[in-house]
Specification:
Elements lengths: L5 H12 L3 E5 L2 E6 L13 H5 L5 E5 L5 E7 L2 E8 L6 H11 L6 H8 L7 H16 L9 E3 L29 H13 L3 H10 L13 H22 L4 H17 L3 H22 L7 H12 L7 H7 L4 H12 L3 H19 L4 H7 L5 H12 L3 H7 L5
Helix pairs in contact: 3-4, 6-8, 6-10, 8-9, 8-10, 14-17, 15-16
Length: 399
């Protein structure tokens, strides 16, 4: 292999892209460069996943649609990112800081720095990766040749393809459709936030779907079907109370991800994950069978600020209500005091993090805005009936 100055290549690409870049040799990081000064490398949250990618060129997409470009050449691996086409929300960046192991006192600094990373489409990142790959491996590739990697999710695994692919050479009868009843069933699951019922339906009931032929070419047909499904899911989530901007931004990200996929089975599995994602998000903001607009608005606020100490005064100001009126109306409509409701929302998130991450109770307490881990443990034990450590041990099989 020709002798390349890998550090020079990385520095040049890092300056050009405006995002962090790393160089590994035999699995060990030997160089890191970023024009944006970060207190901790955000890739720490996904380092093992990215390290396992050994194709010459690849890209990795995280749960919040941040992506990394990867090139392997002999003993060397170059990783650039993260970036994405649209800005992350404040809460998403705080969750990234938590998952990457950023100290609580450094979180605001980390979030501010992450906002300074240049945003660009994945296609632009991959053009840089193709160029590096051609220089290092003397190999020409394009997006169709590259495999999408994403983190395995304990909370949402694709159980089965959500839609049948229509073979290009086997057209179905013009009027053979069976989508309306199935569509209404799925969208009702989303608008009502019935995640578990949706999962059970997929496992036990869901019939084969024939949505007609949306394109002559099979891959284009599957993509078009997915895009329609994503659009419908976003609308159903909005009807269920999800913030309009959140729902539409999520829709945009899923559509962009769909367009980058080239495997019909991966696209179908992505649809399942997307539908479950919308279900889960709506479930978080719907309390009871018929939550009022006030309860939904309060829950949306809490979910957007879950990493911060939240007070009744803050919510009242956000909703342009007096504290007294908000508290009275909320108690009447939700059947619980607002302060208790805020506490329960935070504890529900704490239980999820205890089950599905390896983060310590101390880190979780800090992430959720508790003044101390001792206070968090006291509240958790009082409400849940056991300490965070015992809760994690009891639910370890679900991690």
């Amino acid at each position: 292999m020709k002798n390349f100055d890998f550090k020079y290549i990385c520095t040049s690409i890092g300056n050009l892209a405006g995002m962090p870049i790393r160089l590994y040799k035999n699995g060990r990081q030997v160089f890191y460069y970023s024009v944006v000064k970060l207190v901790k490398d955000p890739m720490a949250a996904y380092e093992d996943d990215i390290a396992a990618i050994d194709e010459n060129v690849g890209y990795f997409v995280t749960k919040h649609f941040n992506y990394y470009g990867i090139v392997n050449s002999g003993a060397y691996k170059i990783v650039i990112g993260p970036t994405r086409q649209t800005a992350n929300s404040e809460q998403e960046l705080k969750e990234l800081a938590f998952r990457a192991g950023v100290e609580p006192e450094d979180t605001d600094m980390f979030v501010a720095a992450m906002k300074m990373i240049i945003r660009m489409p994945l296609e632009s990142v991959m053009q840089m990766m193709y160029m590096i790959n051609y220089i290092l491996n003397d190999e020409k590739k394009n997006l169709e040749d590259v495999i999408l990697f994403e983190p395995g999710s304990t909370e949402a695994r694709a159980l089965m393809p959500a839609y049948d692919a229509v073979p290009q050479d086997e057209p179905r009868p013009e009027h053979e459709h069976n989508t309306l009843a199935i569509e209404e069933t799925i969208m009702n699951f989303i608008s009502q936030g019935k995640t578990q019922e949706f999962e059970n339906w997929v496992k036990e009931v869901m019939p084969s779907v024939n949505g007609g032929k949306l394109a002559r070419e099979q891959l284009r047909h599957v993509k078009n079907t997915a895009i329609v499904t994503i659009t419908l899911a976003a609308r159903a989530a909005i009807r269920g109370g999800m913030d309009v901007n959140d729902a539409l931004a999520l829709s945009d990200e899923y559509i962009q991800k769909c367009e980058l996929m080239n495997n019909p089975i991966m696209i179908s599995n992505m649809q399942y994950a997307m539908l479950r994602d919308y279900c889960g998000r709506v479930e978080k903001i719907r309390q009871g069978a018929n939550p009022s607009k006030l309860v939904i608005a309060v829950t949306n606020y809490i979910q957007h600020h879950i990493s911060e100490p939240i007070t009744t005064e803050q919510i009242a100001e956000h909703l342009f209500l007096s504290r007294t009126r908000l508290s009275a109306n909320f108690k009447e409509q939700a059947g619980v005091n607002l302060s208790q409701f805020i506490q329960q929302q935070k504890l529900d998130e704490a239980k999820r993090l205890l089950r599905y991450t390896d983060k310590s109770a101390v880190a979780i307490a800090a992430f959720l805005g508790y003044g101390s881990s001792a206070h968090f443990t006291t509240v958790f034990k009082k409400v849940v009936g056991c300490t965070p450590a015992v809760y994690r041990e009891r639910h370890s099989e679900n991690k």
